[in-house]
Amino acid sequence: MRLATWNVNSIRARVDRIVDFAVREHIDVLAMQEIKCKVDQFPFDRFEEAGFHVEAHGFSQWNGVAIASREPVTDVRTAFPGMPGFEKGHTGTDAPLEARALGATVGGVEVWSLYVPNGRSLGDPHFFYKLEWLEALREYVSGTLASQPDLPLALVGDFNIAPTDADNGDPAVVQGFSTHVSPPEREAFAALESAGLHDVVRPLVPSGYTYWDYKQLRFPRNQGMRIDFILGSHAVADAVAGAAIHRDERKGEAPSDHVPVVVDLDFDDADDDDRPMIF
DNA sequence: ATGCCTCACGAGGTGAGA
């Protein structure tokens, strides 16, 4: 299975480019973030013509997540248990939920397309929302892997955290002043790893960014950040056969400010085993 | 050219992004 994640920054603004990529790169499952539309505005036809089924989750022009898959998906969920909401500075499980998580099972893998809250600025109510959201996610992962330690679980998406100093090349993002690089955010990311998730791309692609701001020549100057990740449980990590960050997708006409991150998973099951069995 | 920000909403700026 070839699994990809991409913050597309509006599906309607660049659906051709996204479907072309998925077809050209033989993507089986594409998790998208920031589709920036309601479900009834999603261009399902464009994906279906290319052989994909799509699950989409969006309430408005903000946020929005989707999963396109060549095979049918099951167990679709539009939030993980305990996910907090946000409204006018108020956060918690009693606040309205935003469209930031979509879970589905495909090919035996529980995949979540995640758009972690931005945080806006240190000390902003949105910043505390971000930390609460990440803590609820960690609790879900801990509980799930405690009861099903061998579950192939993949958390993919825009985590809005640069986990190490090497993951931030944007001079406007400064330690002590900016979101994405603050100690509590990095601790929240590390806590996901402590809960049993592994960054399955970094071992194969040790450097490189996944996002460059549109402003001030950030891409030509390569002043980006690595904030988009594919995190997998041990069953996923053990199946990794390849990985790539498609930097070229930041070039050309009307790109997203993020690029796709891709991983090849080989579970060696009967589905993709067309070799003769020799005993 | 990879080039000084883009998108949605809606009809003038505003909010959000990271």
TrEMBL record:
EC annotation from Swiss-Prot or TrEMBL: 3.1.11.2
Cofactor: Mn(2+); Mg(2+)
Domain of life: Bacteria
Annotated keywords: Hydrolase, Magnesium, Metal-binding
GO molecular function: double-stranded DNA 3'-5' DNA exonuclease activity
Keyword Hydrolase: yes
Entry annotated with the keyword Chaperone: no
Signal peptide annotation: none
Pfam families from the UniProt entry: Exo_endo_phos
Endonuclease/exonuclease/phosphatase domain ranges (all copies): 4-258
Record family assignment: Belongs to the DNA repair enzymes AP/ExoA family.
Name of protein: Exodeoxyribonuclease III
Organism: Microbacterium salsuginis
